[in-house]
Amino acid sequence: xxxxxxxxxxxxxxxxxTTAPFWDALAExxxxxxxxxxxxxxxxxxxxxxxxxxxxxxxxxxISGMGTLxxxxxxxxxxxxxxxxxxxxxxxxxxxxxxxxFSTELVNVEPDDIVIGMRxxxxxxxxxxxxxxxxxxxxxxx
Length: 142
Prior knowledge:
Layout: H1 20-27, E1 31-36, E2 41-43, E3 59-63, E4 67-75, E5 89-96, E6 101-106, E7 119-127, E8 132-139
Antiparallel strand pairs: 1-2, 1-3, 4-5, 4-7, 5-6, 7-8
Pfam families: OB_ChsH2_C (PF01796)
Protein name: Putative nucleic-acid-binding protein containing a Zn-ribbon
Organism: Mycolicibacterium chubuense (strain NBB4)
């Protein structure tokens, strides 16, 4: 999905050396997150040392991006002035099948169809004018 509206100057994420593999993969419509062999677990958000072990063993691995809706809220008031035309927003936390949780937004869904525990799949929203792709989610049965 390509999203473009020059009138909206919403804040966009800034790629850093630590987060670049995540953002670069999203641009290719893939999801990659870090994996720590020392803790035998996937890790998100991107960081330089593994949580719990502080090991320098993090590696990037591709995941399906599929998950389960862990929590959500419907923001009926804009979360900031740049989002005044984007309400209601379905702000969500998705638990990836690999374990970590990801803060995101649900799209292509009606409020009455949102259910905690429902399966969701990734939607890649491209913002070419900002050279960024955002990861959103929709019901997996679509």
